Amino acid sequence: MTDTKHDSEKLVRDFLGAWEGRDLEVICSAFADDAVYHNVPVAPIEGIAGIRAIFEAFLNAFAEAKLDIVTLAAEPGLVLAERIDYFTMTDGRKVVLPVNGVFEVRNGKIVRFSDYFDLADFEQQSGFKL
Fold this sequence. Notes:
This protein is α+β, with helices and mostly antiparallel strands. It has helices spanning about 5-20, 25-30, 50-60, 120-125; strands at about 30-40, 45, 60-75, 80-90, 95-105, 110-115.
């Protein structure tokens, strides 16, 4: 299967948009079984089971999530997405976080997802330790 620019971009846009719906199965369906998720600078998470666990923890901590794309650049198998992520924590606190995401796509699935953001800023706003 060839991952076209259009298909790679659609996969990532759909994944980012899925957070508003809060459906763990839909969110995780974008990933290959052996995918790597890396919130830089914390240690990467390897494999869909670990990715599912961290995403479930996020969904349990956030009452609402909206990942707004500011700029997106796509090539076949590679998508760069500058975002502002908006979270409302279950205790009502609001988190507004600038993020840059790098997505590697192979055979219609995300195989590597690296997010670059200010970890101290996220942890201070959310009270959530990564």
